[in-house]
Automatic annotation (TrEMBL), chain B:
Coiled coil: none annotated. It is a multi-pass membrane protein. The chain crosses the membrane at residues 58-85, 126-148, 218-240, 467-487. It holds the Pfam family ResB. The keyword Ligase does not apply. InterPro entries: Cyt_c_bgen_Ccs1/CcsB/ResB, ResB-like_domain. The keyword Transcription regulation does not apply. Its main location: membrane. Keywords: Cytochrome c-type biogenesis, Membrane, Transmembrane, Transmembrane helix. It is found in: Membrane. Residues 65-426, 430-520 form the ResB-like domain. It comes from the Bacteria. This is Cytochrome c biogenesis protein ResB.
């Protein structure tokens, strides 16, 4: 079993590298081509997609071997869920690539998948046994369908980003330029998390505390970052670790807050360095890569991805979720934060479809909505798990 | 209201924008526009036509998609606010004062506000229900407003359209053809090959595909309405049972909400993953988080009151044994019983002994059943212990009397009257856990020996007749979205214009790229004139670039 687990980890690494290489080839496809029509058939794009598919197969291999090693589907903790999300994102990209054959999409979708897998790898990667509530074949059905649906929906945001990078004028300050740059900053912040987390992991930093939780019970906690914020009534168990700046009330998870602040700080430093070295908005770095995309095509991919993803998402995140909730918790709907945020995502995409169909919200408006949808999905995946913990909490 | 007569002779209902038959624009606005709005085929919709009475106004309000989207956003926003802090049902306290104190203690001023505004019970609040009601109304009215006119005009559409209709399509081309009739024939052939329904009339071809997908939104809205209707039904008694029960090992209890049924708990089991038995792959995780629960289970026997049993009697027949575990509820007669909660190690009985304090000699042991404590316990050598007071959940003394705060034996206390041959008039003693009180110094003492415990299972009983309605709604919704999303309605018109010209136009409700791809192959095969997509500005600029 242990060999399988190791094999699984190696396969994930292989796919990670394959995605990096494929991104470079898609970049080449766009650099080399003079126009949309020529780059569609470019050799570089062909090689790029081939490497992507190889990476994806290896990624599936990771998934299956981990499933075999643990005896249950690897979708039961933060690492597994986020890594699967990255994988499905690549799958969704491959699907849309074969529908529209546009390397621009790959150039932006793959890096997002790469960041996602890197982000996932910062969480504990041990294989955990399943708690009773998760021991159901509905876990498999519900979570897989949901992840696939969300991944396809996220592709619409990728197409939206390409559209915006191409069509927003970055030479003059404007609200649109500001928000586009904000999206870039958000991506850099995630990289900040990966960088800071890896750094402290490599140095092996650990600090133990005891504290009192909000039900007045004593608990233990271990920080992997120098503790900026202390838990409620904390007592340090690791003498040489730094003393937290301030103590937080019981409702705040000071460990999460510490991680968050370190990541943001690292991200901001990265961003400022980048900004200082290029002396213009970071989005302008990416603009040349979006320039050759066809706006109309990107707009349509954005819409098409929502059309394909919305039914899948409804099935997984609402219908299967309700059936399972009924088996496991005796009620099909309990207004648990995770459920509510799935409903919110669903309502949001319903609004998206109506605005587009009836109000003619196409082009930039539609692209912005797709980006907001991406943010809502990520919020549900990350923030709701880490901050508003409910029944579904993995962390 | 008067009908509008088109030049082609067709009488259109009042409010029509594009003639149902030939497509000529009928309003000034449509005549002016370069590309006509094809959304509902320019048909006469009630909401666009009648604007006067109160009913018209209400109808128009709810049929507007702008309003519909606003309602969706309002539901979305209120739902999001409800997740800011835990809702009432996830909070360990229930009375209003406790709730207020709870939100204030944990979330300070904002918590108080959250409570005062009623956000702590968002999803049961009247305004949330009103919003959902408005959503349902809006879906119904908006759909009815559109589906019938749309159906009629698609049914009445003629193959040959007026050139003014063709010219105002997003995809349009016009040009001379060497052999217009041959081109038409070839186009027809190619379109049929691509699975279009082709109709011909007087030098005109209409090719249509997947019209059924136009009904997708209406089908999915129907599913949503059925779902909402199912939710509404749960308010009616008998459709929905939701109860809980606590049951101890060995206990037999009637099942709340399920008359005539009884449940006996044989055993409650909680198992942990152990490092030895679990696969070694789990080792690290177990080291990191400590113990992880593997299973919660209550083994039960289900009984039913006999058909001919007297009312009030407990004449029962055995139905079945079952192990209720998480994700595997016990199912019978429309009911589901779920494993939801547990309490471990409740005291069941206590074993005591009577001793003479000085020598420590024992008169033997006796066992007090805490559910049903007996009065008198006969011991050896003529000694008896008389239980004259029992406090299951002893909480101190009030007004000189011991009090029990619940019937649950969390902290049992006893008053014993001990009689021995030496002290036949008896000695009294108050015995609680870890303490013994005596009014005056006694010679004898009741001492605790050991205790027996048992587990309690928390079960939830559900009966939900609406589930099938909800499921039906869900299935219809899925059929509808798939129908509307994975197919699209495409039409291609090719017709002869004046003086040997050929006109081409095409329309789809979505996915224009695929339509253009198909049209392209028809064009190449049949030698149709060049056309443009008047939305795609990039292509033009790209072509210019290419020409440079
Ligand atoms: C959560 C609730 C709703 C869901 C999930 C939903 C779902 C949908 C979907 C999937 C479509 C097809 C969109 C497309 O193909 O791009 C659609 C179309 C439509 N919906 Fe809804 N809808 C909802 C609520 C509403 C409401 C409140 C209204 C009221 C105004 C409404 C009016 C319409 C209309 C007019 C169409 C277009 C029909 C057509 O053009 O054929 N919907 N809906």
């Amino acid at each position: 079993m242990m060999e399988l687990a190791d094999l699984s980890a190696n396969l994930l690494l292989v796919s990670f590298i394959a995605y990096l290489v494929a991104t470079a080839f898609f970049g080449g496809a766009i650099k080399k081509a003079s126009s949309e029509t020529t780059y569609k058939k470019s050799r570089w794009g062909q090689i790029g997609i081939t490497i992507t598919v190889i990476g994806f197969i290896s990624n599936l291999g990771y998934f299956i071997t981990r499933w075999m090693a643990s005896g249950h589907i690897p979708l039961s903790n933060m690492f597994e869920f986020t890594a699967a999300f990255g994988m499905m994102l690549v799958g969704a990209f491959i699907l849309l690539f074969y529908l529209y054959r546009t390397p621009s999409l790959g150039l932006f979708a793959l890096p997002i998948a790469i960041i996602m897998i890197a982000y996932a790898s910062m969480f504990p990667k041990d294989i955990t046994p399943l708690i009773p509530a998760l021991q159901s074949h509905w876990l498999v059905i519900h979570v897989i369908t949901t992840v696939i649906g969300e991944a396809i929906l996220v592709i619409s945001a990728v197409a939206g980003l390409v559209y915006l990078l191409k069509n927003v004028d970055l030479t003059k300050p404007s609200r649109e330029r500001f928000w586009l740059e904000a999206v870039m900053i958000a991506l850099v912040l995630v990289i900040g998390f990966v960088v800071s987390s890896t750094t402290f992991k490599l140095t092996g930093y650990e600090a133990h505390f005891t504290y009192i939780d909000k039900e007045d019970k004593p608990k233990d906690i271990e920080y992997n970052y120098p503790p900026l914020f202390g838990m409620n009534e904390y007592e340090a168990q690791t003498p040489e670790a730094m003393t937290p700046w301030i103590e937080m009330p019981a409702i705040v998870n000071a460990k999460t807050l510490t991680t968050f602040v370190w990541s943001v700080a690292t991200g901001i430093v990265l961003y400022l360095l980048l900004r200082l070295s290029i002396r213009r908005p970071v989005a302008t770095l990416l603009k040349p890569f979006a320039k050759k995309a066809n706006s109309q095509l990107m707009d349509e991919i954005g819409y098409r991805a929502v059309l394909i993803g919305f039914p899948v998402f409804t099935l997984g995140a609402l219908i299967f979720a309700m059936i399972w909730a009924h088996e496991a918790w005796s009620r099909f709907w309990g207004w648990d934060p995770k459920e509510v945020w799935a409903l919110i995502s669903w309502l949001f995409y319903a609004a998206f479809l109506h605005l587009r169909l009836s109000q003619g919200w196409e082009g930039k408006k539609s692209a912005w909505l797709a980006v907001i949808g991406f943010i809502i999905i990520m919020f549900n995946l990350i923030a709701v798990n880490l901050i508003i913990a409910g029944l579904h909490s993995y962390a | 209201m008067s009908k509008i007569k088109c030049k082609c002779g067709h009488e259109n209902p009042f409010g029509t924008v594009l003639c149902e038959k030939c497509g000529r624009p009928l309003t000034e606005e449509a005549k002016q526009s370069e590309v006509v709005d094809m959304r509902y085929e320019g048909s006469a919709r009630r909401s666009q036509t009648y604007k006067r009475s109160i009913i018209d106004k209400i109808w128009n309000f709810f049929s507007s998609v702008k309003i519909g989207v606003s309602i969706i956003i309002a539901v979305l926003a209120t739902s999001a606010i409800g997740t800011l802090f835990p809702q009432k049902f996830y909070v360990p306290v229930q009375t209003p004062e406790d709730l207020l104190a709870y939100y204030e203690r944990l979330y300070g001023f904002i918590g108080t506000l959250y409570y005062k505004l009623g956000f702590y019970d968002m999803y049961n609040s009247w305004w949330f229900k009103v919003l959902i009601g408005m959503l349902g109304t809006s879906i119904i009215i908006a759909s009815v407003d559109r589906v019938f006119p749309l159906y009629k005009s698609l049914k009445r559409q003629r193959t040959k359209r007026h050139p003014s209709f063709m010219k105002r399509q997003r995809i349009y081309g016009e040009g001379t053809a060497l052999t217009p009739d041959l081109s038409l024939e070839k186009a027809e052939e190619k379109l049929k090959e691509m699975k279009y329904n082709v109709k011909k009339e007087d030098g005109a071809v209409l090719a249509e595909k997947n019209r059924f997908s136009r009904w997708g939104p209406y089908v999915n809205h129907t599913g949503l309405i059925i779902f909402l209707f199912g939710i509404l039904l749960r308010g009616i008694p008998g459709f929905y049972v939701d109860d809980t029960m606590w049951i101890r090992e060995g206990e037999l209890r009637s099942i709340p909400g399920a008359p005539d049924y009884y449940l006996k708990s044989n055993q409650f089991i909680m198992e942990m993953y152990t490092k030895e038995e679990a696969d070694e792959v789990f080792g690290k995780a177990l080291d990191r988080v400590g113990s992880i629960v593997k299973n919660y289970q209550t083994d039960v026997s289900l009984y039913k009151k006999k058909e001919d049993g007297l009312p009030g009697s407990t004449d029962m027949e055995f139905v079945k044994d079952y192990s209720i575990i998480v994700n595997k509820p016990l199912k019978f007669d429309g009911y589901n019983i779920f494993q939801m909660d547990y309490r471990l190690n409740e005291l069941k009985s206590m074993k005591m002994k009577l001793i003479e304090k000085e020598t420590g000699d024992s008169f033997g042991e006796f066992t007090i059943d805490l559910d049903d404590p007996k009065g008198v316990y006969e011991l050896e050598n003529g000694a008896t212990v008389n239980l004259i007071g029992y406090y299951a959940d002893y909480a101190g003394v009030e007004n000189g009397e011991p009090v029990s705060k619940s019937p649950v034996p969390n902290n049992p206390a006893f008053i014993f009257d001990m009689r021995t041959p030496e002290k036949p008039q008896g000695e009294k003693s108050f015995v609680a856990i870890q303490q013994t009180l005596e009014t005056e110094e006694n010679a004898y003492q009741v001492k605790f020996v050991s205790a027996d415990t048992r587990h309690i299972s928390g079960l939830t009983i559900r009966k939900d007749k609406t589930l099938y309605i909800l499921l039906l709604g869900g299935i219809i919704f899925m059929i509808g979205v798939i129908q509307g999303s994975y197919w699209n309605h495409r039409r291609i018109w090719v017709q002869k214009g004046n003086d040997g010209n050929l006109l081409v136009a095409a329309h789809t409700n979505k996915n224009w790229f695929s339509l253009k791809k198909e049209l392209e192959s028809v064009k190449d095969y049949a030698g149709l004139p060049k056309y443009v997509d008047r939305r795609d500005t990039d292509i033009e600029s790209e072509q210019e670039e290419g020409e440079k």
